[in-house]
Amino acid sequence: MRGTTPNLLTISLALMVSPSLRAGEVALVFTNPVITSLPEPFFPTMFKARDLDGDNIVDLVVAGRDPDDRLLTLKGVGNGAYVPLQTLVAQGFTDWVELADIDGDGRDDVITAWRGALPRVVAYRGLPGGQFEEAAVLAGIELGTGRDPQGLAVADFDMDGDNDIAVSSYIGQSIEIFSNTGGMTFERVTRVRLASFLGGYGYPRLLHAGDLDGDGDLDLVANEIGGSRIATIRNEGGSFARAVEYRAPLIGDERPGISAVTLADIDGDGDLDAYSPALLLYSTQKIVYFRNDGTGRFTERLVGEGSPSGYAFSVELADLDADGDLDAITGAALPGTLTVGRRTSAGDFVFEEDGFYMFGQLIRHIDAIDYDGDCDLDILSIDGPSRAIYTRRNMTPQAGCGGGGVAEVVAKNIAITPEPTGALKNVVQPELPTHDRNGDGAVDASDVAVWLSEMSMPISLMRTEKSPNPVVSPTQSTAIVPTTTVPKIGHSESVKGGKR
Amino acid sequence: MIRFPLFSALFTLFVTAVAPGQCPTTGDCREVHETSGCEMPECCTLVCEYDMFCCETGWSESCVQAALELCEDIWCPAAGACSVIHPTPGCDAFECCDLITTLDGWCTYAAWDEICALEAEALCGEARCDVAIPAVADESEPCYDRLNDGWGIGLESGRITLSCGESMKGRITGGGPRDLDWFTLDGSARRRIRFSIEAEFPVELQYLLGDSEGPSEVKWLVAEPICGGERSIVLLTEPGVSSLILGAGNGERPYRSGLDCDEIDPDFPPDPKDPPPLQLYGVRWVASIACLELGDINGDGSVSAADLSLLLTAWGPRALGSAFDPRAADADLDGDGMIGAADLSLMLAGW
């Protein structure tokens, strides 16, 4: 590591409103969060939001790294808070979860990969009322589930009418693809190796499906956190080509760590582009945009502003102000921050920072969903070390269908309300890893990204002296949006998955 | 014995003088059994040296506890056939288990998955061999350095230029980053070359198209068994930046361990307490490149009726993606994915 980290906590805690608003444009405004705390020692990694129990309120399925081997479903109560719905028994950590109908009965099932020494892809079949059956193994090592499957994509890859599965093998450095043959059985389609030309470890993490080349079938994109690359794998009528890999661009003179990737049509040209958080050690955090030329090749790489502090780990692009372009929500680590950037125009990749919120330690996952039914997109984020889900309601005046005057009043109140600082007073910036975690011979941002990605417990240095649990307490916003803490969920019966 | 067990040189010298003769015997070292000793040689010796009772009377609970503490990384042999996938680490043939778990750590602590089984099938029972290295140019890369590793590592590195008719020798070693040797190819036009390689280790050879920033596309990757003599691939190279990359692996994963560098890095000399370098296989290779006519599909040095026959046999669409095997005749002379009249025309031009 070259010198000491420059990412000091030079943070403004106030919600900032950009002075550079175009005519008719308003700043993005969000409430302080409703916090749902998850039980120890659950370390949430990702969630999937959907109405599971049919009450028209969004519920969650939460994947996580849990020594007690649990997967959680949470019931939304309507105000952004969640209470326990069901504890599902896993065998090993889970990093990603999907909701899709895998058995053809018309109900969503929970699909995930159990990591650990005996990796398996499993489904919890959906039951009425938002409940799920015990896990059924869809693919075990006999089918070649890879080594440490972390990311997961569920889609009809062979276009035969049912959902197939692809998983990213973090240690195996490959993508494993399985075809649904009906009756909850799967057969192996192929293994696609990634990063085979690297001397270090590529460590593919996340995986998403989308039609990149416009040929009607679903291709795959993955991020290689160890290689600072993303990879595309083209579907050619149900069989998959070898990967094509793209490196994150140099930003200044630094190669960023790429801890995630997501697909969206960023430039509005009808094809799917890719974007990633860009973790940097020596400047503010960025977002990298890989522009699709329409043929599935990313021929241009652009860089937008992400978070002014911390280390970028997650990012979501969504139209938060309903103006037709995609705005950015960047999640960071150390400290855990959320930065909301308003896209200045659909034709560029420039964001004006409208909100900067600091709370926990590591924002692992972000989603923009309309949880309150007012037609605009609210922000849900998950903090692994803090074991918390934060829900922030979108109060941007021009967004939504139900905010109206109330939204403006609330926005005014919130705009002058600082984020809570209680848990941050004694924050100590932890020592960053100084060894070559991806084995590529250099210590750089990708090693920090790998380190953050592999974290499965709170960072002790980030804890305050008085509060062993870094989840912060309710805030001034309580009067507007009540803060709720989910009661501890009892330990489930679990079967250890072996050495992790 | 294929290899000298990892980190056990001094230990072996020590225990052979004091350990009882009952090691190994039968029974899992991690389970109580009536007979003395257990089946994992290193673990059995460790435990009996610690508690002679275990090798004199029976393998009691205290022996099991000692094994669990002393033998944390020793898993061989273990239940399950080496060539068969099973959900526990290790396998039942000591030498094979010992070899594969040294090459592939996953097989040591996780499940014996299809890659472990594949490795066992390919490598167990195969003797190592020495390649006769001719007096040709050397890649000039100390094995503790990474000078010819293209953009495959996080540092600046170069590529080997090997011209038509030239040969070169070199070495591949493991570690982090593992060693790769990149050969730069003439990208001025579509060309046919014959790349020949002979190596003392399991070879992975891949053809990479593109530059360091991407798109980087591995057009194909093949693995060759050890000690198979010289292997040649007659390939068509694409215009633009492309590289042939030589490394150690089995086609499913690279090998990073068991191919230690045995030279002393003057900047980072080894600690005397470090275990000696472990080379399960030799680390040397020798390679050559021959430049051929585009239409010389079989790579025999001339464009002839045999090549025409191969082209006509392959008429139609060419296999793409992972289905493409560079070791099969490639008659797509113009690279359009179809073997047809245009390719025939190109062939006849070079007749």
Describe this structure in words.
The complex is a heterodimer of chains A (500) and B (351). Chain A has two helices and 28 strands. Mean pLDDT of chain A is 84; it is low at 1-18, 403-428 and 461-500. Chain A starts with 33 loop residues before the first strand and ends in a 46-residue tail after the last helix. Chain A is mainly beta. Chain B has helices spanning 9-18, 41-50, 53-56, 61-70, 94-103, 106-109, 114-123, 305-313, 341-349, and strands at 137-138, 160-161, 167-171, 181-184, 191-199, 203-209, 216-224, 231-237, 242-248, 284-292, 316-317, 338-339. Chain B has 351 residues and is an alpha+beta fold. Chain B has four domains: 6-70, no CATH class; 76-125, no CATH class; 137-261 and 278-292, Jelly Rolls (Sandwich); 305-349, no CATH class. Mean pLDDT of chain B is 88; it is low at 1-20. Chain B has nine helices and twelve strands. At the A-B interface, strand 13, strand 16 and strand 17 of A face strand 6 and strand 7 of B. Strand 17 (239-247) of chain A pairs antiparallel with strand 7 (216-224) of chain B.
